[in-house]
Amino acid sequence: MADALEARDLRARVQNTLDSFRIQEQDVLAPLGEPATALLDAVFSLLQGGKRLRAAFCFWGYLGSGGADGDPVVRAASAMEVFQAAALLHDDVMDASDIRRGQPTAHVALAAQHRRAGWYGDPDRFGEAGAILAGDLCLNWTDQLFATCGMTAQEVARGRVYLDQMRTQLMGGQFLDIVESARSWRALSTQERVESARTVIRFKSAGYTIAQPLMIGAASAGAAESSIAALSDYGYALGEAFQLRDDLLGVFGDPATTGKPAGDDIREGKRTVLVAYLLDAASPSELERFDACLGSPDLTEDDVHWVRKLAISTGAVDRVEDLIDQQAAASAVALERAELTDEARSRLIELITVCTARTA
């Protein structure tokens, strides 16, 4: 039996929708000439393949709440994937990430194009500016896809409430993330560090990854407020578990699978729950070396190996795994309160495992 991501041929239908949308927007940007190709490539390289989790949550939220399967919900679900592309484009600039899914990030690729062409100015600034514009374009396209998805005006208006919320929360979460990466954690208690990291997760990741696409779908279909509230609880709990798994992969993941360099989160100085727990149990000498590693662009393979051993020996990894299990269980309990079709409930239960037991 097909899983929640493949059922009803969802993944292929989303890709077809995005491919058709590119053709449509190519015509709009055609007067720009060759530069339009670079802009489109920056976006659509991120929209090829992938798990389509955000689309799946929107889709099953809609069908599970009484909506009909068809092109409108697939187009609305596809908008969630374009929104993710916006988040990734901006996030990679802010984190100065070089690699995404095994390929140069958009700002790096655009900077390389600038160098090859021998253009005037700073190639890196050019790349960053281009990637920011590509991300802004994706935010516009998210609205465009959703507004023209083919649902009734009433359905679109109901979903729009949560779409607007999703965009605002993501921007707030992104800003909070850079604040946490800039300020010192040494004066904070472990509880304060964990709470800060979990707040970033809720606003930056859990919302737009699971909770809000699910609520957009459910609200569009006319779900009761009590059911939307239950789906919100499910989504934020599962979204946190998803990101906690991502944080572990950011340190322990295989680059061949994750598509990102080993230890990238340490190199970028991410203040994660894993880091909070590690700081709680490390010795003074271990803290001194870890401080030198966290946020170091010159992080070596030996450094990454040492951080991995420290995360295990301090019990930080086990504590994060326990929190993942707790949040996954909480999501399952919350789902019981939602009014859903049997098929959608089954698919959303499957997605708990998909989101928490993964290697990429």
UniProtKB/TrEMBL annotation:
Q: Which cofactor does it need?
A: Mg(2+)
Keywords of this entry: Magnesium, Metal-binding, Transferase
What range does the record give for the signal peptide? none
Q: Per the UniProt entry, what are the Gene Ontology biological process annotations, in alphabetical order?
A: isoprenoid biosynthetic process
Q: Which PROSITE patterns match?
A: POLYPRENYL_SYNTHASE_1 (PS00723), POLYPRENYL_SYNTHASE_2 (PS00444)
The molecular function terms of the Gene Ontology recorded here are:
metal ion binding; prenyltransferase activity
Similarity comment:
Belongs to the FPP/GGPP synthase family.
PANTHER family, A to Z: GERANYLGERANYL PYROPHOSPHATE SYNTHASE, SHORT CHAIN ISOPRENYL DIPHOSPHATE SYNTHASE
This chain belongs to which protein, by name?
A: Geranylgeranyl diphosphate synthase, type I
Give the organism's phylogenetic lineage.
Bacteria, Bacillati, Actinomycetota, Actinomycetes, Micrococcales
